Amino acid sequence: MTSIEHEVLDALRELNEAAAQGARSGPKPDFQGLFGRLDALTVRLEGPEHQKLRHFLERKSYEPARLYLEGVPEARCLCRR
Q1: What are phi and psi of 62, to 5 degrees?
Q2: Residue 8 falls within a domain, yes or no?
Q3: What global pTM score does this model have?
Q4: What φ, ψ does residue 73 adopt, rounded to 5°?
Q5: What is the pLDDT at residue 79?
Q6: Which residues does 30 contact at the CB level (< 8 Å), separation at least 6?
Q7: Which end of the chain is more exposed for a tag (fewer CB within 10 A), N or C?
Q8: What is the per-residue pLDDT across 17-60, written as a single tens digit (0 to 9) for each?
Q9: How far, in Å, CA of 67 to CA of 54, rounded?
Q10: 78 inside domain
Q11: What is the pLDDT of residue 74?
């Protein structure tokens, strides 16, 4: 896994945790900041080796992107091409 892929996976895991935390009472997570960070990372993904990951992130399919980076083979986007 490349360093950019590690960064994306860390951000996706933070988003997943923030979503779980958002369902609980207390201060709300900074979703805007997380989405902005993921958008910035998406722009940095270059080359054909990142095509599938870029597809997930550009379509805001964050759960499939996380599963893909974690090596789940059936991770796929639910969007329409």
Answers
A1: -70, -40
A2: yes
A3: 0.86
A4: -65, -30
A5: 59
A6: 18
A7: C
A8: 998 887 777 788 899 999 999 999 999 999 999 999 999 999 99
A9: 14
A10: no
A11: 72
Containing structural domain, residue 9: 3-69
> What are the C-alpha distances in Å from 3 to residues 8, 10, 70?
9, 11, 14
φ, ψ at 34 (rounded to 5°) = -65, -45
Rounded to 10 degrees, the C-alpha dihedral 26/31/37/38 comes to: 120
Beta carbons within 10 angstroms of residue 40's beta carbon = 11
Residue type, 75: A
Q: Please, are residues 14 and 33 in contact by the beta-carbon 8 Å criterion?
A: no
Three-class SS state of 26: coil
Cβ(42)–Cβ(53) under 8 Å?
no
Residue 58 lies in a domain: yes
> Total domain count for the chain?
1
Structure tokens at 48: 């054909």
Question: Burial of 50 by CB count in 10 Å (0-12 exposed, 13-18 middle, 19+ buried)?
Answer: middle
The answer to whether residue 81 sits within a structural domain is no
